[in-house]
Amino acid sequence: MLARYLRAEEPALFPNSPWDELPDLELPAPRRREGLGRAHIPVSTREPLAQAWFDQGLRLLHLGWRSESRRAFAEAARRDPELAMAWWGLALTRGAGARCATARAEAIHRALALSEGVTDAEQRYIVAATFLADKGPANGRHGFVREMEGLIDRFPEDAEARLLLAGFLADGYESDGRPGPGQPYAQALVRELLRTHPHHEGVHHAWVQLMEESARPGEAVESARRLRLLVPQVGTALLSAGRLLLRTGHTHDARETLEAAVAVEDAWLQQEGIPGAAASVAGQALRLLVQACADAGRYGEAQGWARRLRTRVEDVTPRLGQSLVFAAGALSGLHLRFGFWRAAAELRVELPEGSRPAEQVLLRGMETYARGLRALELGKLTEAERSCEALDALSLSLAEERKGDGRLLCPRDVARVVELAGCELRGALESRQGDPARAEATLIRAMRLERRLRGAGPAPFSRQARETLARARLRAGRADKAVDLAESLVKDRPGSGHAWLLLAEVHVARGDRDAATRALASCLECWRGADAHLSEIQRARIFRSERVELGGGEAANASY
């Protein structure tokens, strides 16, 4: 989707995409790929292979595989040096940010120079893209949208134009759940395309990405499953499908799809002879696999995926600080999810010489936060207070750092994540100290900080503030005030046994045994294949078999 190509990039496990620094016509020749779908724009060329390579680039553009899409467009340009639309494609696949602005502008101006005599539709595609290249995605937004609307009005049967416009308009959601300005428009366009082009791979991919963060992600489950069948050899599409299936609680299907994404990208790396540092899809898929296994109570399996991720990172030469921190974070988050605070605090990660301050602060923040939780567990409240103060100091230490660039960690984003961790830990400490009013205020502030985090920043390494606040309210005997928080966690993560167990505990504390029984049944359904020795799994099974009370004592004091 164009929005992901042209706007702020997320910090990646491996921040450097393959061939980003190479000029377009120096890109290595790609391979012809089958099974990419049906996307097609007729272009002005007498060379059949140029058309074929252009269509391959277009299909991969729709499916989010930017590096391979760019190679295909470059091959189309080599096959027919006069093909204007090949340069149009190269402009759109050049990547986000100022670092690619010059290359984007050069490519689209080359397309303009070659556009005399091409069809009206091609000219309209090219003119629309000039707004993005000359003014940037933000300032050129209005011009691009108006030109694309003119193209769609002139050629209403052109599904590719509607799909590209929808991909550009995908604005996501605000922190309060409201859609961005272009999001409803984009959804309307793709919803209609689902009706008219039910077998178009790009339409299903767009629908999955548009609905993932919405309040109705279940509407895209069928599209996620269709992607597995339509484009089984495109890792980016499998990653999107797996992420949505995980979001909607289809954890088993998500795990299978994410495992397929890892296998597909590993095969591509081997086939092309590309180093592991180019494995952006596999890196993200492995992190999601850790999360999926954690939701399903499979701690041992999740550890295997986390170690595989760490091994992949450590085998890369040169070793990258950002990659090491992200891999360590996946394992640390897993330990925290199951209450193994000591293991989370002892990451034993040595960053390479010359690591950036943002990497150092993020790693130290994770370690400090885990030590604070360990101190809380042991009742060492003074030590936990020192951890809160250390997190505050770490956040402030990045105040003077420059803003991040491209897919590198942004110091400001890291500062916000560390600030959130300090605030959440302090709220848990105040609850443990017997000050529920102060804990409530602190954790509500943490929830607000959580909502303000940029989507393009690093994921928080602390617990969700809603969960901590729900447990603080349980501790204070205010279960009726905790139920909405627990239900919202279940709504966001319906495949997480941990969320369902918390909801069951809240209902028991409220005295609603029927609701508690239903929540526990959902919890145990999520944990059908869970590791039996884990304390949460044992507690849930005891509740089922003996119908014991979970509302006080252990349940209220549980930290995660």
UniProtKB/TrEMBL annotation:
InterPro entries: TPR-like_helical_dom_sf (IPR011990). Coiled coil: none annotated. This is Tetratricopeptide repeat protein.
